[in-house]
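Folds abound. Consider this:
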Amino acid sequence: MTHPVTLQSFIAGRWVGTRAATPLPSAVNGQTVCHTHEEALDFGEALTFARGTGAGSLLAMDFQQRAARLKALAAYLLEHKESLYALSRHTGATRNDSWIDIEGGAGTLYAYARVGANDLPSGNLIHEGPGIPLGKQGRFAGTHILVPRGGVAVHINAFNFPIWGLLEKFAPSFLAGMPCIAKPASATSYLTEAMVRLLNDSGLLPAGALQLVIGGTGDLLDRLNGSDVVTFTGSADTAARLKVRPNLIANSVPFNTEADSLNCAILAPDVSPDDDEFELFAKEVAREMTVKVGQKCTAIRRVIVPRRHMEAMAERIAARLAKVVAGDPAAEGVTMGALASRAQLADVSERVERLLRAGAMRYDTRAFAPRGEGVEHGAFFAPTLLVCQNGWANDAVHDVEAFGPVSTLMPFDDVDEALALAARGQGSLVTTLATRDTAIAARAVPRLAASHGRVHILEREAAVESTGHGSPLPVLKHGGPGRAGGGEELGGVRAVMHYLQRAAVQGSPTMLSAVTGEYMRGAAVQEEPLHPFRKWYEDLRIGDSLLTHRRTVSEADIVNFGGVSGDYFYMHFDEMAARNTQFGQRIAHGYFVLSAAAGLFVSPGPGPVLANYGLDSLRFVKPVAIGDTIQARLTCKRKIDRPTKKDQQPQGVVAWDVQVLNQHGELVASYDILTLVRKRPD
């Protein structure tokens, strides 16, 4: 793929921009990589296209189909990743840095494809059940649903992760059926533009699902309405300016902020220099200082250690930093690249000077000589470990963030002081606690969680598999309180729900079942001569139901089940002991009741039902005694379509509502059974 000299925006299905504007230099050697474009964009057109064509193409698919499309897009990106790696070098990133951005971005698409396939229903409505009875006669109930908002997601991203930064927002909004307009930071926007071109060239991207803005956002935010969403990653100062735009406030447009913060790492007092955790801690700090040249919103900025270990920890970290080789990522042996731009170099330098003026000191002042041709024109900055002897008296170390390879070491005398120093950051994305002591972890983590979005416990057992302090994961929440922006991203299905609208719905169980596509007890059912287990997946309807014949439980049933299962619990076999309990008599095994119920409702011959693979929401509501008679009602509750896999029969998932009743019509057991059901053969 040949990258254009002038970057282009992708608006309303076409590439816009031919006249060169601002040059974007390489972070490595200062040479111009490309230019932004001069042409102004029509954001009214962009929004109209997103709300019409974009929403229409996305909602023509359901959650399951959009999940499959994300998986295909991820595979396409990985097939063409080398063109992105070649360009990523100019952002100052090494191959390892770029792996986080490029393959981490594709991995996030894969992760949300799994979320959609495993956690979301067919269709475009999520039922947040269970239903809630609101009347005494069972004729009036309520529940909650989540539906597409009908608006546009505007994603504003920082310069440090030009690919992952967009894809981690795009994936959940795409899955939710919400078209998006992405605005990357200009300094590294050439890499974002290259990635969007790949997505568009794949033929897999639905029309209008993703638009790209190179340059400023103009009046875009002033055109949004209450159905839209803005997400922002970057500095807290910029977020504070954007979120108070009068139009956003007037229309209550959700504005999700993930801001840089002064994350910390704490070495607990139980860890000594001879422990594995001591070295693991030093390794984690050094890694967070140098990966992406410390340009991560999750990087460790404050290193809080016991006073008696200050010098030993400083030496360990400095020894690791001394092995770092900075320079052109294309040069042999280079392990750390450059900051994203000369402007970023000036900003980091100025902030380090502020920290030094406030009383911090450089621990190591060895010479810094980046490798490679033209690096004197690049944006290289030496890994810098600062030491602050009094974290209480120095506000700057808790307030001034140098967004580069810079961390400040400070001492504490007891755990409470360490936790208080951590809280001086006024809200952070993540913290690491290194300890072997479970009591310290149990005491410290709840306090740390109050001011941090994620708490990473570092010790030798988890270290073997740990993804580390600085890696947000698609399945876990990313975001933090206070200075970190108060927002939330990722977190599996939670992120998808940020782009959906929640509504309460009230009505009869029959109406609620029709709306949600999920059977609610009390709703009308369909009873037919054909057993529900004899129906193909396509032929099953929500509410298809079977009321079984009856079975009376005998003492022989209990004795035989105990013999087969080995469960001789006294409640089932000791008449005198059982008489002294709240039940007053021997009762049947709960799992016998389940087994007997299955015997009542199962159709034993070969048919569409392939397997039962689990139970949900099992409750034994009332005991079953010897002589009681049970009956089961089986009702089709929920259907989830599944794409056909290689070497697998076409099938879907069917959840069945099961009620086991006694001779008085009282509920004795309640659960959902999950089955795989074949689709009708071609």
